[in-house]
Amino acid sequence: MSSHNTTSEPSLPIAVIICSGRQPRVGDQITSFVIRTIQSKYPTSSLTLIDLLSWNLPMFNEPTIPSQIRSSSDYIQPHTRAWSEEISKYKGYVFVTPQYNWGYPAILKNAIDYLFNEWKGKAAMVVSYGGHGGGKAAVQLKGVLEGCRMGVVERMPGLHFPDKRVLGIAAVGGELSLEGDGAIWGEMEREEIGKAYGELLSLLGEEKKKLGRLNVA
Length: 217
Fold this sequence. Notes:
By secondary structure, the protein is α/β, with parallel strands linked by helices. Helix content is 41%, strand content 15%. It has seven helices and six strands. The protein has helices at residues 27-41, 52-55, 78-87, 106-113, 135-147, 164-171, 187-216; strands spanning 13-18, 46-51, 92-98, 123-130, 151-152, 158-160. Strands 1, 2, 3, 4, 5 and 6 form a six-stranded parallel β-sheet that branches. α1 crosses α7.
């Protein structure tokens, strides 16, 4: 297992987002696996879990285009104000998304589209999963996040369900074997997640330097 130097790592607040709203689901299990993997390689990381299912945002119902909003108080709906305030807390995001019919979930697109300036200028990382690893969903999501003026790491780990048996377990929200003997993913997948998170930290560092130069100017 490779090690990572965490002595100079900035403890910037980062949200890890469960992007599946289905019930049953395995997105919560997989997101926990991603969090454990990151924390094992970057122990000082400041990670907060966000579950889109718990937020239960209705389809976008604000009268104003999000890009025109500068403050959470300018939103009409209480749920939008709360969502804006939550997302504004973080400097970066790890999106853990399934792939449905070659795309990412509608609940995620809706949650992104509620806001704009809260995402703008932030850094993001995408981890996808599914029978094919979720690569097509990851590419689509990356394009949308870049459209929100976010910096997105190029490395996008894709977690493949290894066979039909595991896919069947996942389809009914069963317990996946993610640790120890018989784990469906091993050091290769953990290493990819760790490398992607390292790239995310690099993006955050670059953004911090830019802000410092602006403040000096």
